[in-house]
């Protein structure tokens, strides 16, 4: 598979994805977005992940810059999202600096794990703000952070993506050296949104978690399909029951199918509640967001456990690189390294369900 051997999505596939609007799923229709609902977005990500996790991952990574459009003014949005064939990338790791200067900032730094950077036209990068040689701090005394949109022509890509799972995402490091960025091309996600469309009213970070979960469901479903097909074909030469004749394997596959279906329904239900409120211009509250965080992260974690179990069911067949299960196993373990599935998000959800305030500043963003 070329995504594996080339460590990126082939250019012709990127062009096809762009032509079908896959990089604009979360963009407002006023900016040329597809008008996709939040639940439909999850369904698309799940279907893509069933076929190729790396493709789904890059499409998902385009969702975040599009959701960020709400924090920009009309002119900046028009510049960044004008090209219907454009793709986007981002990094929320604060490993760069934005030095204050007249009218904007001077950005420098190096960011790792920038998925899809090889194909992106614009990249949003998180920076620590510096002024007069000092880190500028917010009212809470913490370093002030700012995301800056830069044309990808101003980035240097460093080939660092030598990995197992999600090998086709091309998640290399990028470097920026002393680039001027206008103030209008920067923002922080706690700013007020400026897009009066449903996609501009849904919470950003928990929706990204829901997208992650949808992709995990896709991998899990494909793992069930792969084990089922293997069991129908694999005949052992040893004097023991075939894979499909072992009750423990029969139970594992049936249970995985039931759990996957239940997780899928719950994820869509919690997402649908938030989307319904966004359509009706009703306030999305902490309980709504907490339930989405819980549904998303529990789904991702459960899918990883199910894929692990199915990998074991397949036995030694899953060890070989020509086995789909070998790749599904690698990919879902790579999925679970993302910050979006760290335990603290669900711990914060539990706090709000107990009537306490969430501790993470981006919990409800």
Rg over alpha carbons: 21 Å
What is the count of structural domains?
Answer: 2
Low-confidence parts lasting 5 or more residues at pLDDT below 50? none
Mind summarizing the main beta sheet?
8 strands, mixed
What CATH architecture label of the largest domain applies?
Beta Barrel
Q: What is the highest CATH level, the class of the largest domain?
A: Mainly Beta
User: Residue share in helices?
Assistant: 40-55%
Which H/E pattern describes the elements?
Answer: HHHHHEEEEEEEEHHHHH
- Return the structural class: alpha+beta
Strand element count? 8
Shape: globular
Sequence-ordered SSE layout with sheet pairings:
Layout: H1 2-6, H2 11-19, H3 38-51, H4 53-67, H5 74-81, E1 88-101, E2 104-114, E3 122-131, E4 134-135, E5 145-151, E6 156-158, E7 172-182, E8 186-187, H6 205-233, H7 247-279, H8 286-314, H9 324-335, H10 343-353
Parallel strand pairs: 1-3
Antiparallel strand pairs: 1-2, 2-7, 3-4, 3-5, 5-8, 6-7
Helix pairs in contact: 3-4, 3-6, 4-6, 6-7, 6-8, 6-9, 7-8, 8-9, 8-10
Tell me about this structure.
The protein has helices spanning 2-6, 11-19, 38-51, 53-67, 74-81, 205-233, 247-279, 286-314, 324-335, 343-353, and strands at residues 88-101, 104-114, 122-131, 134-135, 145-151, 156-158, 172-182, 186-187. The chain is an alpha+beta fold and 365 residues long. The protein has 2 domains: 2-187, Butyryl-CoA Dehydrogenase, subunit A, domain 2 (Beta Barrel); 201-353, Butyryl-CoA Dehydrogenase, subunit A, domain 3, CATH 1.20.140.10. Strands 1, 2, 3, 4, 5, 6, 7 and 8 form an 8-stranded mixed β-sheet that branches. Helix 7 (247-279) runs antiparallel to helix 8 (286-314). The longest helix has 33 residues, at 247-279.
């Amino acid at each position: 598979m070329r995504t594996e051997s080339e460590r990126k999505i082939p250019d012709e596939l990127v062009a096809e994805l762009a032509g079908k609007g896959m990089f604009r799923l979360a963009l407002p229709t006023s900016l040329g977005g597809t008008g996709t609902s939040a639940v439909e977005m999850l369904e698309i990500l799940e279907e893509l992940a069933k076929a190729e996790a790396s493709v789904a991952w890059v499409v998902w990574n385009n969702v975040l810059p599009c959701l960020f459009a709400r924090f920009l003014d009309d002119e900046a949005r028009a510049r960044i999202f004008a090209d219907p064939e454009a793709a986007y990338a981002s990094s929320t790791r604060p490993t760069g600096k934005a030095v204050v200067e007249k009218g904007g900032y001077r950005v420098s730094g190096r960011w790792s794990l920038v998925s899809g950077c090889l194909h992106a036209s614009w990249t949003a990068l998180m920076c620590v703000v510096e002024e007069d040689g000092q880190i500028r701090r917010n009212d809470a005394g913490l370093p002030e952070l700012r995301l800056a949109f830069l044309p990808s022509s101003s980035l240097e890509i460093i080939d660092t993506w030598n990995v197992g799972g999600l090998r086709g995402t091309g998640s290399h490091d990028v470097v920026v050296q002393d680039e001027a960025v206008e103030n209008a091309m920067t923002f922080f996600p706690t700013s007020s949104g400026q897009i009066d469309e449903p996609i501009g009213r849904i919470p950003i970070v928990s929706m990204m978690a829901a997208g992650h979960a949808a992709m995990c469901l896709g991998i899990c479903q494909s793992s069930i399909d792969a084990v089922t097909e293997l069991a129908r074909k694999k005949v052992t030469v040893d004097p023991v029951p075939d894979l499909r004749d072992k009750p423990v394997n029969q139970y594992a596959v049936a249970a995985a199918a039931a759990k996957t279906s239940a997780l899928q329904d719950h994820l869509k239900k919690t997402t649908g509640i938030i989307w319904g409120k966004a359509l009706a211009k009703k306030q999305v509250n902490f309980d709504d967001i907490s339930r989405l965080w819980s549904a998303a992260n529990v789904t991702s974690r459960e899918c990883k456990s199910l894929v692990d179990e199915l990998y074991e069911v397949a036995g030694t067949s899953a060890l070989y690189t020509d086995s789909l299960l070998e790749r599904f196993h690698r990919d879902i373990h790579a999925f679970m390294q993302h910050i979006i599935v760290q335990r603290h998000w669900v711990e914060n959800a539990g706090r709000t369900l107990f009537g306490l305030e969430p501790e993470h500043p981006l919990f409800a963003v």
